[in-house]
Design brief:
Radius of gyration of chain B: 23 Å
Distance between the termini of chain B: 44 Å
CATH superfamily of chain B: MetI-like
Number of strands of chain A: 23
CATH architecture of chain B: Orthogonal Bundle
Largest sheet of chain B: none
Number of helices of chain A: 20
Number of helices of chain B: 12
Structural class of chain A: alpha+beta
Oligomer: heterodimer
CATH class of chain B: Mainly Alpha
Distance between the termini of chain A: 43 Å
Strand content of chain A: 15-25%
Number of domains of chain B: 1
Chain lengths: 588, 305
């Protein structure tokens, strides 16, 4: 493992490597050394429309669209090498800034010639960049991760506190943003943005590379965040713009005439158009459409387990794209607040028993087998700084140890076993995973009462509902713990679920897990002056949390996608786990 | 008096005999009834059959019933109908599914008919405001969407046998109630009812001893036609995850669990779908045959000559 000091010393080298790789990718596509062709339409099919299109709140598949639509000050490059893919490089900014004033100040100089797709085209400015940050805490639909910005950017907390009180109309929000500023966000001149932080934040440049805080054209303030009008009238800064968007049906991107390739080191924009059709939740059907060359790839799904064995019979198939995303998916979340079984889940012995009882090998098998999935034993994954492999609850062949689990339950005062209400998203793989776990848990005396429900219901009525948590409407939940980026992203896996410092108001630490030692380690890591110190704190926190056992990590591993035969340069971008729409080209 | 009752019972016996003869001559009835009889036997002796097979319905066979890559196995010597998505024996699960189908359909049919008959009798016999209120209530029930109501109930109370049976009964007693009500309204003015009233019979006696036996045949026909409807409702709710919670096997649930595998594991969709189709068809045909036998005039009306 590379130490963080060596990481820092090689950072500029990495940046250069990333640029070289991007250029190399452009000239020598992975699949064949042939000249790139411009033109054609990249066609994808997805299960459903994106939950949120607005960059401020966009996640997962929406980030694929924003790769083509939205430029950020810094960005994560597209590379097969995780070390390169996890190191932010300059996008709209001329270069990756060096921290000033003890790690508290960053200056971003925006490239001249980077234009908004307005009519006439207009230079993207530092004021647009400030607007991108300020929108993050709008009262209609703000960022999913306020902790990345609030308490980090100077004055942002006060700005956001005021913003939350504003009437949720476009006019009122625009007026508030015109009249108020966060002291840490200053447009020093037309093209220079100065960001001042409250404390040094070792992963701040990675946070800036997320599309959430992308500069935003002032025209967009005329629309409510993420509203249908916002989606249809989105002012683009990337090589593509929205040509047509019918909610829940399709989105059609066309070339943005204002985009100047000379101003963009990351994107090439080979294809003329990108079309995504929503409404095909059947991955098997999508797979057959790709194989019959009707479409080019998946949008928000991946190859179904049923198809995987057949496709993996030829592991050299150039159309098969397999990559590790760094997520623990799924993990069981234990409701430590549940009053069921006389509050048994508050007892670490019972939680450890659940960890021992889980047959992770069974979950691996229904997830596609050991070629694509591996058992997970901790929160952090190998793609995240601070990862150090350990397994506090080992079982033979990872198939669970019912005897050990029974012994722990007996020691905790439950020799007859316990009944646990298991709430999970119905349909898709989680249903399989839940079914695979059930029989082995029963062998250990843990009787799972299965409560499948539509995903939205499970989240809104169970996991995120404080009353459901406290009343014991569920004892076990199932979710993914996924890094928002790879590299120095441990905060994205640990803070949302396990930072207990303000857990009463947290929307993500559902069961109010609160260990002062873990909180202290989190604080150390978030404000460390070096990545090394942060990684060490995350490493300790990972182990400490697993000693408390508020979760049961189950599996992690590869995502498998399939692309059409005609698609070239299909390197996966690990931010949005799909091909890079601005780098692929179509061979006709 | 005794001569009259003897001749009455003799004519009843000969009437039943005629119906039975007519039914036994109907090949469709015999086939449908045979299938249903087998279905009931499977449902009743499910635990015994599963013991004979030796594979528990909820027991995953990870080594012999699933490939290392998690793909189910087709029908073979060990698993006669193949395995499902997590390596369970499909045959054992279908047998448990049959038990659930029979239990739910019979329970729902009995409850729906009982409620429908009671309410229909009262509404039809009493008339006036009672009839108006009950008719309005039946209309309201018939106007509610099944799935939306089911989703709402499951969201509040969670999926269970009770919620599912309650939902199905709530949506199926209305039509029976309305039919019974209309039959009672027609029967109310019949001479035998007038005669009973003149003889001083109480309302309850007239409803239960005079009207009910006279409309029982038609109620039976509607009840038999209600069963396939209930089977489809149960399968639909289970398919959508609104029925019996897993791991209990239901035919709709098995189809739902395996739907993503249809391209590589045809057996896991084909067999439960066939079971569902056969059961629905058998009850429908049984109902048709019963109607033909009990009410030949109504049956002939519908036939093309």
């Amino acid at each position: 493992m590379i130490s963080t000091s060596s990481r820092r010393s090689v950072a500029p080298l990495r940046t250069a490597c990333a640029l070289v790789t991007a250029l190399a990718c452009a000239t020598l596509p992975g699949t064949a050394a042939m000249a790139q062709q411009s033109g054609g339409t990249l066609e994808l099919v997805g299960a459903g429309d994106v939950a949120s299109f607005d960059p401020a709140s966009a996640r997962s598949a929406a980030l694929f669209l924003h790769r083509g639509l939205t430029r950020t000050l810094l960005a994560f490059p597209t590379s097969d090498d995780p070390a390169i893919a996890g190191t932010p490089v300059a996008d709209l900014a001329e270069s990756v800034p060096v921290a000033e004033e003890g790690g508290k100040v960053y200056r971003f100089k925006i490239r001249e010639g980077a234009m908004w797709g307005t009519d006439p085209a207009r230079q993207i400015t530092a004021a647009d960049a400030v607007r991108g940050f300020e929108r993050l805490c709008n009262p209609v639909r703000g960022t999913y991760a306020p902790s990345y910005y609030i308490g980090i950017i100077e004055g942002f907390e006060a700005f956001c506190d005021g913003f939350r009180q504003v009437e949720p109309t476009a006019e009122a929000m625009k007026a508030y943003m015109d009249e108020n500023d966060a002291s840490g966000l200053v447009a020093e001149d037309e093209l220079t943005l100065r960001i001042t932080l409250e404390t040094p934040t070792p992963d701040f440049l990675s946070i800036v590379a997320l599309p959430s805080s992308a500069p935003m054209a002032e025209e967009m303030l005329d629309y409510l965040p993420d509203s249908p009008d916002f989606r249809r009238n989105y002012v683009s800064s990337g090589p593509y713009q929205v040509a047509d968007y019918v909610l829940n049906e399709y989105v059609h991107l066309e070339r943005n005439p204002a985009w100047d390739p000379a101003s963009d080191p990351l994107r090439k924009g080979y294809v003329d158009a990108i079309e995504v059709a929503f409404g095909t939740p059947d991955a098997g059907k999508t797979q057959r459409m790709i194989e019959s060359a009707d479409i080019d790839g998946y949008f928000d799904l991946s190859i179904a387990t049923a198809d995987l064995t057949r496709i993996m019979a030829n592991p050299d198939d150039p159309q098969l794209k397999q990559f590790t995303d760094g997520a623990v998916n799924p993990a069981l979340i234990i409701n430590i607040k549940s009053p069921n079984n006389d509050g048994a889940l508050a007892n670490p012995l019972v939680r450890k028993a659940i960890n021992y009882a889980a047959n992770k090998a069974a979950v691996v098998q229904v997830g596609g087998g050991p070629n694509v999935k591996i058992p997970a034993h901790q929160i952090l994954s190998p793609l995240v700084d601070g990862f150090e492999e350990f397994n506090l609850y080992p079982t033979p062949d990872n198939a669970g140890d019912p005897e050990k689990a029974r012994a722990l339950l007996a020691e905790a005062g439950y020799p007859q076993g316990i009944d646990l209400k298991f709430s999970y998203s119905a349909g898709g793989r989680y249903e399989l995973y839940a079914a695979a776990l059930q029989a082995d848990m029963a062998k250990a005396g843990i009787n799972l009462i299965m409560q499948p429900a539509p995903s939205r219901t499970v989240y809104s009525q169970m996991y995120q509902n404080p009353r459901a948590v406290e009343n014991g409407a569920w004892d076990l939940g199932m979710r993914s713990i996924s890094p928002d980026w790879i590299g120095n992203s441990a905060r994205t896996m640990i803070v949302p679920l396990f930072d207990g410092s303000a857990c009463e108001t947290s929307a993500t630490n559902w069961t109010c897990y609160n260990n002062p030692e873990v909180n202290a380690l989190i604080q150390t890591a978030l404000t460390a002056e070096s990545g090394d110190v942060a990684a060490e704190a995350w490493r300790k926190a990972d182990r400490l949390i697993m000693e408390d056992a508020p979760i049961v990590p189950l599996i992690s591993g590869k995502i498998s996608l399939y692309v059409s035969e005609r698609l070239r340069n299909t390197t996966i971008n690990l931010l949005f786990n799909n091909v890079d729409p601005t780098l692929v080209w179509i061979e006709e | 008096m005794s001569t009259q009752s003897t001749s009455q019972s003799a004519s009843l016996v000969s009437g039943r005999h005629r119906v039975l003869k007519r039914l036994l001559r109907d090949k469709v009835f015999v086939m449908a009834a045979s299938f249903i009889a087998v279905l009931f036997l499977v449902a009743i002796f499910a635990p015994l059959l599963i013991e004979l097979i030796g594979h528990g319905p909820n027991e995953p066979f990870r080594e012999t019933g699933l490939t290392a890559g998690g793909v189910p196995l087709p029908p073979n010597g060990e698993f006669l109908l193949g395995t499902d998505v997590i390596g369970r024996d499909l045959l054992s699960r279908l047998i448990v599914g049959a038990r659930v189908t029979v239990f739910v359909s019979m329970t729902c049919a009995i409850l729906s008919v009982t409620i429908g008959v009671i309410i229909g009798l009262i509404a039809g016999y009493r008339g006036g405001i009672v009839d108006l209120l009950l008719a309005g209530f039946i209309d309201m029930v018939l106007g509610l969407p099944l799935l939306v109501t089911a989703i709402a109930l499951v969201s509040v109370y969670g999926a269970s046998f009770t919620v599912m049976i309650g939902t199905i009964v709530f949506f199926t007693w209305g039509p029976i109630g309305r039919i019974v009500r209309n039959l009672v309204v027609a029967a109310k003015s019949a001479e035998y009812v007038q005669a009973a009233r003149v003889l001083g019979a109480s309302d309850t006696r007239i409803m239960l001893r005079e009207i009910l036996p006279n409309i029982a045949g038609q109620v039976l026909i509607y009840a038999s036609l209600l069963i396939p409807q209930v089977i489809v409702m149960e399968a639909s709710l289970s398919f959508l995850g609104l029925g019996v919670p897993p791991p209990t096997a239901t035919w709709g649930g098995i189809i739902s669990e395996n739907q993503l595998n249809y391209a590589v594991a045809w057996w896991s969709i084909l067999f439960p779908s066939f079971a569902l189709l056969a059961a629905t068809l058998a009850f429908n045909l049984l109902g048709d045959s019963l109607r033909d036998a009990l009410d030949p005039s109504a049956a002939n009306k519908g036939r093309v000559k």
